[in-house]
Design a protein that fits this description.
The structure holds two protein chains of two kinds. By secondary structure, chain A is an all-alpha fold. Chain A contains three helices and no strands. The chains are: A mainly alpha, B mainly alpha. Chains A and B meet through helix 1, helix 2 and helix 3 of A and helix 1, helix 2, helix 3, helix 6 and helix 7 of B.
Chain lengths: ~110, ~180
């Protein structure tokens, strides 16, 4: 029987979430950004599991199954978008996608 | 069980931090898989054996393999001297240490399971299934629609463009072809 307090468990999930958030903020490689989003989704789902085990109800696990389905759909579309981006721009840098930006030196990074 | 939780949490946090700060995408993915495996151990300790299995099968098995396929299709960051680098112990000593910590953790936990120590509030897959297909049936259908949309979207976005026969577009066509040859 585990006797770790629920605060510690939620702190663990929050730490993972913060790591994913930091990765999303500091990385410009779009593959790493997608990986960070996966980490964040996973840690958010972990809070459901923690709550479900705290109340001894299966609802938390059901929610995590939904999170899994969302993550699968999100990652398939996201990876297809990354492939399209690489075909069009020949780079994985997220800052290269600035065509909507209204600047003087636009399309400098594109070609 | 508490030490097992703390060790798994430590491995998860450490390997996730290494994963998001790495330079090589494949190495980062392997660290991320390690992190998912340790999170799966945490789920098992928390009394969710079904989700521990699903975490390994779907996350570490399916989603990460998708990532690896895409990174290998993009073919970025590969050098000729890569194999020499891989042979150096600096590259694989840290992942091996983390993975063996996790394996030891797992074996200890298996031994404790036999003695029936961890018979807490384990929520069995049967309860989860009953709840999933009665209370949350609408959610299952919505998730099915979402997955269908995901399939259609990924197919549409991932399909190659048709060849455009147009004299103003020819330059771009030639450019992409030459780049493909380089790749």
């Amino acid at each position: 029987m585990i006797t770790v307090t629920i605060e510690t468990q939620i702190f663990f999930a929050a730490a993972l979430f913060v790591i994913g958030l930091i990765g999303l903020l500091i990385r410009r490689n779009i593959v790493f950004m997608l990986m960070s989003v996966e980490v964040m989704l996973n840690s958010a789902g972990m809070v459901f599991i923690i709550a479900g085990s705290h109340w001894a109800q299966p609802d938390g696990q059901v929610m995590f199954i939904f999170v899994l389905a969302i993550a699968a759909a999100e990652v398939s579309v996201g990876l297809a978008l990354i492939l399209q981006m690489y075909h069009h721009f020949k780079t994985l840098d997220a800052d290269a996608l600035n065509k909507l930006k209204d600047t003087e030196n636009e399309s400098k990074n594109l070609n | 069980m508490n030490t097992i939780f703390y060790i798994a949490a430590f491995v998860a946090i450490l390997s996730t931090s290494i994963a998001i700060s790495g330079k090589n995408a494949i190495h980062s993915l392997l660290f991320l898989i390690l992190s998912l495996l340790s999170i799966s151990i945490v789920f098992y300790i928390l009394g969710a054996p079904l989700l521990a299995a699903l975490e390994v099968i779907i996350y570490a098995g399916a989603i990460m393999v998708l990532f690896i396929f895409v990174i290998m299709m993009l073919n970025v960051g590969l050098e000729k001297e890569m194999e020499k680098k891989w042979m150096r112990p600096r590259m694989w000593i840290l992942p091996s240490i983390l993975a063996s910590i996790l394996l030891a953790n797992f074996l200890v936990m298996l031994g404790k399971m036999k003695s029936g120590e961890a018979a807490g509030t384990v929520i069995l897959p049967k309860q989860v299934g009953i709840s999933l297909f009665t209370t949350y049936l609408l959610g299952v259908e919505i998730a099915a629609i979402l997955l269908l949309a995901g399939i259609v979207g990924a197919y549409h976005l991932g399909s190659q463009k048709k060849k455009v026969i147009h004299r103003f577009m020819q330059k771009e066509e030639i450019q992409t072809q030459s780049v493909r040859k380089e790749l």
